[in-house]
Design a protein that fits this description.
The chain is α/β, with parallel strands linked by helices and 365 residues long. The protein is built from 14 helices and 13 strands.
């Protein structure tokens, strides 16, 4: 266990979720309020996953477990990962026996399955949250064992039993709304004479999006400055000195730099995970979405993106149609329509998901 500073409250909550930032950042958003309400918090995740990187600065107890990836296709690794899941269940049982939480809150991802299995065996009540339009595999497996399932999109309601489901939305950090555009441009060595495009390929990066964006730089940089969050291990050192282009591997949500970069952005080109969509909505940032194709996913990002397109918040460029020319053309269209998109997003209702989600957790504990 990685020890940290815990609150002195009488009730304990075990948090879990991981594999990508989207399974962790909503938890990060509710942690300050949970601590303020006097809860003792513990996080259960993998030893080397991105969840540990994100949670470490928050100074709460971290308990690593082995976990196997849940694949939707045949792979020999499925056989070996079965043993990792079993070991993860055993380790989770030991951890829960030690910390004795009053409730489990899971954000999904493959690491959550052994935690939920152990919690169910120990009769610890479980609350899960689903961000996407359709439930992920880990949450589908977990559903029979949970007390409550919180969800983000109204369209998702039909996937869950009436007595378990609660529409909460997805929590967005208030810190994200407090960025300084001047500081954002300064961090990227940008001027205020050209608009800024922020490109986000997700915490794990997107090879195809990174490649097409970089191939388009000579054309894009004539009119725009590009801030590119390309994912861990995807930096291109040959572009470090390029004027009007700045690249980052990953920027933690607790780092004020992310809020500053968002504030500096006039447009955002992004994947279509639910967390980033609702962040863009809260920030009222005109955006072009390039959802993961069905070849690489279950199609959840496509459905997320279509929902936002239908509401008039986003433009979509399917990954199958992603070329240099199409990307540049769609960016130009979005820039011309940026004020219309921003105005639509500003008129939506304020996000109150943090309190709604915590109320469900408290009622279940």
């Amino acid at each position: 266990m990685t020890k940290g500073v815990l609150s002195c409250g009488s009730k304990k909550i075990a948090l879990t979720g991981g594999g990508s930032a989207g399974h962790v950042t909503p938890i990060v958003t509710i942690i300050p309020e949970l601590l303020a309400r006097g809860y003792e918090l513990h996080y259960i995740g993998t030893a080397r996953g991105i969840e540990r990187v994100i949670i470490k600065p928050l100074n709460i107890a971290y308990h690593p477990i082995p976990a196997g990836k849940l694949r939707r296709y045949f792979s020999i690794k499925n056989l070996t990962d079965i043993f990792r899941v079993i070991m993860g269940c055993y380790r989770s049982w030991r951890i829960l026996s030690e910390i004795k939480p009053h409730v489990i809150f899971s954000k999904g991802g493959f690491v959550s399955v052994p935690v939920i299995a152990a919690a169910w065996l120990r009769r610890v009540p479980i609350v899960i949250h689903e961000s996407d339009m359709t439930p992920g595999l880990a949450n589908r497996i977990s559903l029979p064992f949970v007390r409550k399932v919180c969800y983000t999109f109204p369209e998702t309601a039909g996937y869950f039993p009436l007595d378990k489901r609660v529409l909460t939305g997805i929590p967005i950090s208030p810190k994200l709304l407090q960025g300084d555009a001047d500081q954002g441009r300064k961090r990227c060595r940008f001027t205020d004479r050209k608009p800024v495009i922020m490109v986000i390929g997700g915490s794990l990066g997107s090879r195809v999006l990174n490649r097409i964006v970089r191939q388009s730089l000579s054309s894009l940089s004539e009119r725009y400055q590009i801030c590119h969050i390309c994912g861990n291990g995807n930096l291109d050192s040959s572009l470090d000195q390029m004027e009007g282009y700045c690249q980052f591997e990953f920027v933690d949500h607790e780092n004020k730099m992310l809020a500053d970069l968002f504030a500096a952005a006039d447009l955002v080109v992004s994947r279509a995970g639910a967390t980033i969509l609702f962040e863009l909505l809260s920030l009222a940032k005109p955006n072009l979405l390039i959802p993961l194709s069905k070849k690489a996913s279950r199609g959840d990002q496509i459905r997320n993106a279509r929902s936002f397109q239908k509401q008039g918040y986003s433009k979509i460029l399917p990954e199958e149609d992603l070329t240099q020319d199409r990307l540049i053309d769609q960016i130009e269209q979005l820039y011309r329509q940026r004020e219309m998109f921003a105005e639509r997003m500003k008129n939506r209702r304020r996000n109150k998901a943090v309190n709604k989600l915590i109320d469900v957790i408290e009622a279940t504990a």
